[in-house]
Amino acid sequence: MTTAPPLLLASDHVTGCVHLLTLPDGTEAGRLTGRHLSEHAGFLALSGGRTACVDDRRGELLVLDPFGKELVETAIPVAVPAEHLACDPSGRWVAVTTGLGKNAEPWSDLLTVVDLTTGDAARVRTRVGEPGVTVLGDGDPLVVLRHREPGALAVHRFTDLLGAPPGCPAATAHAHLTLPDDGHGDAQVPDLGQVFAATGTGVHRARREGDALVAEPVIPWGSSARGWYLRLDPRRPALWSTLRGGPADPLRWPEWTNQAWCHDLDADRTTLTELGPGLVFRLALAKDHTAFTRVHPDGDELILLDSDGETAHRVALPAMDGAPRRGGTPWEGVQRRAVAASPGSDWVAVTRGGHGEVHVFDARTGSEAARWKLDTPLHHGGHTMLRTQTDGAEGDPLGR
């Protein structure tokens, strides 16, 4: 039996194009046009190498099957702009929250829930404020919304939401757990029914008990900095984040400090690794390495950590035209990078925003194996996902 090569989904969400490419040669295996995927909600890994994402312009939840005959397996209407996307551990029950989109302040309180098996969907009103979301399994699934200001984990029964009548009625949570007001970043451990939320005071965690949540001890950052991003490592029971410290003023972003944070849940042990100054955000998990990109006016780089959290390779990346500069913010009107990897592969892909380039590295050696030039610019770095058909990435049931 021939094993399918790893595939990269690369979305240029501004242009409205999704490229499907084989690794490491970059052969185009498929393409979607007229699809503007939500970069913030990201890609949600499903079984069999499939993925879910949201088209923010058409208002559709897409299930993509890169290894199948047709790339688009399912399209179901959902409320947009999509903020966060998650499913239960089985991959059947999906929830999509809404955020601010191109508006100055959050304005939408709509939540969409979907049964991917039947195609049934419903929309309800919850609370304005860009909520994070997890969907806990163990029998009847629960939708857990992470709210800010005031901070809380709000618990809803999935079946109640799915059975809501037309007209987007208000949905009242049947259980709450208090959080600090600055929550940003979510994860869950599917086998244990645990949910995690990143806050300034540490990672708050709770476990499912019936149709409610019970608080458990907070995991400290172990640093004066904090994480704004949180994800589960499906290769082992661990949580990852990037801790950002330094001045709060975004105009001084080149002075931001960055540490890779990894908490082994079995050993209850945290590892911190210095990454260097500048902008570091999302990370990617390869077979035996964890990948970060660092943007800085003095030079960008790819940083690869080994399974012990030690720095294995630091690789210089070519500068981007339109990159964040001193005296400006790293968010508005600038180019960035996306990084992608698969737990079933040693390949790591890094984009060069605005140039339409994808750099492919072998994580084992840190060497660049290929450099692709696409026919769209990959504005803002685009958004990417790297999959093999059996990599187990669906063990993390949140969009990334």
> From the structure provided, what is the oligomeric state, counting identical versus distinct chains?
single chain
List segments where confidence is low: pLDDT < 50 over at least 5 consecutive residues.
Answer: none
The main β sheet shows up as:
5 strands, antiparallel
Given the C-alpha coordinates, what overall shape results? globular
Number of strands: 33
CATH 4th-level superfamily:
YVTN repeat-like/Quinoprotein amine dehydrogenase
CATH-level-2 architecture: 7 Propeller
What CATH calls the topology is Methylamine Dehydrogenase, Chain H
Q: From the helix content, strand content and strand pairing, which structural class follows?
A: mainly beta
Radius of gyration: 20 Å
Q: Helical proportion? A: under 10%
User: Averaged pLDDT, please?
Assistant: 97
Give the distance, in angstroms, between the N- and C-terminal Cα atoms: 31 Å
Which CATH C-level class is it?
Answer: Mainly Beta
User: What is the helix tally?
Assistant: 1
**Beta content:** over 45%
Describe the structure.
There is one protein chain. This protein is mainly β and 400 residues long. The protein has one domain: 7 Propeller (Methylamine Dehydrogenase, Chain H). 1% of the residues lie in helices and 45% in strands. The chain has one helix and 33 strands. Strands 20, 21, 22, 23 and 24 form a five-stranded antiparallel beta sheet that branches. It has a four-stranded antiparallel beta sheet with strand order 3-2-1-33, with no helix packed on it. A hairpin with a 4-residue loop joins strand 16 (186-189) and strand 17 (194-199). The longest helix is centred in the middle third of the chain and has 5 residues, at 158-162. It is globular and about 50 Å long. The chain starts with 6 loop residues before the first strand and ends in a 13-residue tail after the last strand.
